[in-house]
C-alpha cells in the first residue's frame, strides 16, 4: 500500500482552468459589479451631456468611454485577477475589440432612439429618459456576450504570460 500512495503523490495535479483567477461564478458576479460601476459612471455622463443639449450620438459615445475606462481597470484586477502591465497584443487589443462591439451597440441604439424621438417632437426630460432607456438596454443586452468573450478569449488562462523568475 505504501507504493500506491508514493506513486499517486508523484503524479502531477491537473491545473485548474483559469488558474490564479476566481471561479466562473465569482468572475461573473465581479464583472457584473464592475459593470454596474461603469454603468453608473456612464449614466452621469450621458444624462449630463443630454441635459446640456449634446446630440445622442456624441453623448452616448462619451458616456461609453467614461464608463469603459474604470471598468477596464476594476474588472481586469478584480474579476479576472490580472495584475501588472497588460500585454498589448494578447490582452489590450482583444479587449478593445470586444468593448468596441459594446460601444457600437450602445451608441447605435441611442442614435436610433434619437432619430425616432426627433420627428415625434419628444423633448426635454421625456426625450432624455427615452434615450437613456435605449442606452441602458444595450448594456443589458451586451453584458452576457461581452463577459463570455472577455472570459474565454481575452482573459483565458493561456493568455496569461508565465511568471518571471525572481533573482
Automatic annotation (TrEMBL):
The chain crosses the membrane at residues 31-52, 58-75, 95-116, 128-149. Signal peptide: none annotated. One of its GO terms (cellular component) is membrane. It comes from the Bacteria. The keyword Amino-acid biosynthesis does not apply. GO terms for biological process: polysaccharide biosynthetic process. It is found in: Membrane. Residues 35-154 form the GtrA/DPMS transmembrane domain. Keywords: Membrane, Transmembrane, Transmembrane helix. It is a multi-pass membrane protein. Its main location: membrane. This is GtrA family protein.
Amino acid at each position: 500500500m505504501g507504493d500506491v500512495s508514493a506513486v499517486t503523490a508523484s503524479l502531477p495535479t491537473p491545473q485548474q482552468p483559469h488558474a490564479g483567477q476566481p471561479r466562473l461564478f465569482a468572475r461573473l458576479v465581479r464583472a457584473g459589479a464592475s459593470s454596474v460601476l461603469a454603468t453608473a459612471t456612464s449614466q452621469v455622463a450621458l444624462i449630463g451631456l443630454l441635459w446640456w443639449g449634446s446630440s445622442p450620438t456624441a453623448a452616448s459615445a462619451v458616456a461609453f468611454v467614461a464608463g469603459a475606462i474604470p471598468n477596464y481597470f476594476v474588472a481586469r484586477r478584480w474579476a479576472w485577477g490580472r495584475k501588472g502591465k497588460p500585454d498589448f497584443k494578447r490582452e489590450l487589443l482583444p479587449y478593445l475589440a470586444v468593448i468596441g462591439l459594446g460601444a457600437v451597440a450602445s451608441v447605435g441604439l441611442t442614435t436610433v432612439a434619437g432619430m425616432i424621438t426627433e420627428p415625434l417632437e419628444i423633448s426635454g426630460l421625456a426625450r432624455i429618459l427615452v434615450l437613456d432607456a435605449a442606452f441602458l438596454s444595450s448594456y443589458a443586452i451586451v453584458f452576457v456576450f461581452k463577459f463570455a468573450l472577455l472570459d474565454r478569449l481575452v482573459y483565458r488562462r493561456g493568455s496569461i504570460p508565465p511568471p518571471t523568475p525572481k533573482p
